[in-house]
Amino acid sequence: MNIQLREAKLPEFGIAEEIPAVSKEEFERRCLAVYRAAKCDWFVVYGDREHFANMHYLSGYDPRFEEALLILGPNNAKFLLVGMEGLDYSVDKKIEADVILYQSFGLLGQDRTRSPRLDEILAGIGIKRVDRVGLCGWKYFESIEKVSDEPHFFIPAGIVECFKNVVDTPLMDKTRVLLHPTEGLRSYNNVDQIALYEWGASRASAAVHNIVRGVEVGMSEFEAVSNMQYAGEPLTAHIMFSARKEQMVGLRSPSGRKIELGDGVTTAVGYWGGLSCRAGVIDTENDEFVEKFAKPYFKAIVAWYETAGIGIKGGDLFEKCRSVLALGGLRPALNPGHLTSTDEWLHTPVRPESNEVIASGMALQCDVIPTPLPNGVGLNCEDSVVFADEALRKELKTKHPTVWERIQARRKFIIEEIGINIKDELLPLSSNPAYYNPLWLAPEKVMVVR
Fold it and tell me: Of 102, 207, 284, 315, which sits most exposed with the smallest number of CB within 10 A?
């Protein structure tokens, strides 16, 4: 594979202004589908500011300051339990549900005299001692992780204990119903959800491109990040930026540290629908870095894009990236690819020896994080894609023609300018698709296949 560094101007693909809407009918359908799949009398979804995506997927409501519970029951019963500050915000929900104030979800020091205890609320909505209750947290243990045969819940213990006091039957962990990488309902997206992801992924990647393009020696990390033109988009992760000659730590937030020539550098921005990350060095030219690190790394990015497709086993994609990185003395630090959503990481079929396959409707991050790297060296080119079969592509083109046009323009750029042969079903959502500029002071010099 002949990788070269050459100038290639990134086109203006455009971005959507208005957030695409998912219909109320779709949210109602999701609630009904997950309730049937859970096979219990009551399906209970926990949410808080950090772990909002399961609840948001089902109801359109995302907790902002407090915890919340979405409870689905017999005869299409739906209850949303919120704290004081969530009470007014609950009007933004997209399902027909009874909103119940539970003040203990409020912040410390707020009034707690107006609502019953949680166990009293649960009994009051009709949960009986003989009922089967399934709880859905923000992740679940695989069998190898369990310390006992009892279910393990990623939900605050106080909430779990309340349910144990209300029902006599054992509580069940039903998180897999939403989050399993191939069986979970959230692993698959319709065209409206894809359009929403394209809105977020295109904006996040445009922000990252603005940061890379605007970096100058002597400015602070804060000043560099201010170039992103943040407009209040909902975040899936802290905004990240770090430039230094020491060990690169990708999760750092920006600081007042001044950027110096020769620094390793990394930045990442994630909005609902996708995260974009770039890492390299602060320089206009650095042949040693390009030959020893950037080219071997970009070969793995090319391998990811050319291998990934509908029907491809996650284990095969993992092994392909691992073997290509190994040619450059590198290995994946994490899974080279994972499902994404309104939260940054949902789950992933891309695991060693995984037989789980990529399927139509899945949104994935191309997320090849290489290790080991010496101090002052950054390598990353992470972007968002979705996989769609012919029927889903046709529906997307019909219902969201401008989204489709942007996606097709990105596909053409990847194939004709970057030189990567992607499959028909791979639809790039990011505004800088596979556009890897490792030298940040020469931002239009990018890795291409020739």
Answer: 284
Any domain includes 236: yes
The answer to whether residue 257 sits within a structural domain is: yes
Q: Can you give the pTM of this predicted structure?
A: 0.96
Question: Which amino acid belongs to residue 447?
Answer: M
Does 150 map to a domain? yes
Quickly count: other Cβ atoms within 10 Å of residue 295's Cβ: 18
**Domain containing residue 105: CATH number:** 3.40.350.10
Token digits for 67?
A: 């915890």
* Domain match, 214 and 290 both: yes
Cα(446)–Cα(450) distance, rounded to whole angstroms? 12
The count of other CB atoms within 10 Å of the CB of residue 109 is 6
pLDDT at 346 over 90: yes
366 forms beta bridges with 383
CA max distance for the chain:
70
Residues spanned by the domain of 337: 3-9+186-449
278 and 132 share one domain: no
Q: What whole-number percentage of the chain has pLDDT above 70?
A: 100
In this structure, the answer to whether residues 76 and 153 fall within a common structural domain is yes
Residue type, 83: G
| Three-state SS sequence of the chain | CCEEEEECCCCCCCCCCCCCCCCHHHHHHHHHHHHHHHCCCEEEEEECCCCCHHHHHHHCCCCCCCCEEEEEEHHHEEEEEECHHHHHHHHHCCCCCEEEECHHHCCCCCCCCCCCCHHHHHHHCCCCCCCCEEEECCCCCCHHHCCCCCCCCCCCHHHHHHHHHHCCCCCEECCHHHHCCCCCHHHCCCHHHHHHHHHHHHHHHHHHHHHHHHCCCCCEHHHHHHCCCCCCCCECCCCEEEEECCCCCCCCCCCCCECCCCCEEEEEEEECCEEEEEEEECCCCCHHHHHHHHHHHHHHHHHHHHHCCCCCEHHHHHHHHHHHHHCCCCEECCCCCEECCCCCCCCCCCCCCCCCECCCCCEEEECCCEECCCCCCCCEEEEEEEECCHHHHHHHHHHCHHHHHHHHHHHHHHHHHHCCCCCCCEEECCCCCCCCCCECCCCCEEEEEC
Do residues 380 and 275 share a domain? yes
Six token digits for residue 26: 């779709």
The count of structural domains within the chain is 2
Structure confidence by residue, pLDDT tens digits, 233-287: 999 999 999 999 999 899 999 999 999 999 999 999 999 999 999 999 999 999 9
List the Cα angle 315/321/327 in 5-degree steps. 135
Residues 230 and 162 in one domain: no
Residue 35 in domain? no
